[in-house]
Amino acid sequence: MGRKFEVRKVAMAKTAGAKTKVYSKYGKEIYVCAKNGGTDPQANLALRRLIDKAKKDQVPSHVIEKAIDKAEGGAGEDFHPARYEGYGPGGFMVIVDCLTDNNNRTITDVRNCFTKTNSKIGTPGAVAHMFEHQAIFGFKGDDDEVVLEALMEADVDVTDVECEEGTITVYAPHTEFFKAKTALSEAFEGVEFELEEITFVPQSESVVSGDDVAMFDKFMDMLEDCDDVQDIYHNAVVER
What we know:
Elements: H1 19-37, H2 45-56, H3 61-73, E1 80-87, E2 93-100, H4 103-115, E3 120-121, E4 131-140, H5 144-153, E5 160-164, E6 167-173, H6 177-187, E7 195-202, E8 206-208, H7 211-224, E9 229-234, E10 236-238
Parallel strand pairs: 8-10
Antiparallel strand pairs: 1-2, 1-3, 2-9, 4-6, 4-7, 5-6
């Protein structure tokens, strides 16, 4: 179906020095999810997805268990989501998702990232309408028609299925994540997902080149250094 998927979400660093930050971000997100939706992964599907994702990113079990225990005990901080949108160096679109217990601190930190890198923070909804909130699955395969048929038989609302270089990529609305995963797992026994993600997929791309490349790197590094920032989505294609 002709559209190659590239992960536009900024990947958390896996270096030894960054592991503590990765664990902290997952711990915070798992805690909030468990506190709001219940600590049983079988009943709280969002929590189950988060735990699976954390394990794939090699987050230790004790970090996951500690976050769930903290939520079960009812103690701890009162985090809530915050989203900031705008335009990065060179004009590409960016969405910054945060979890915060102090809005003033978070907006100050995030705005600082924009102002110091020739970027522009916008109003809520400024760019989000140019992204599709999608569930995406990637796995080995070479027949997209068979995959599409299996999903349609399971009554999954499929957005797109494509096959490229021996990999099948399935796109569906984010609300169909578990329905699509279940359908694929049942139709293709033993399937191993190389990618299973709920993310924001940009409808268009924006090339970042020249002097803007160094500023792009600075912008991303500054955002990742913010303790409250959980995820960053953008439509930049960087030409190095």
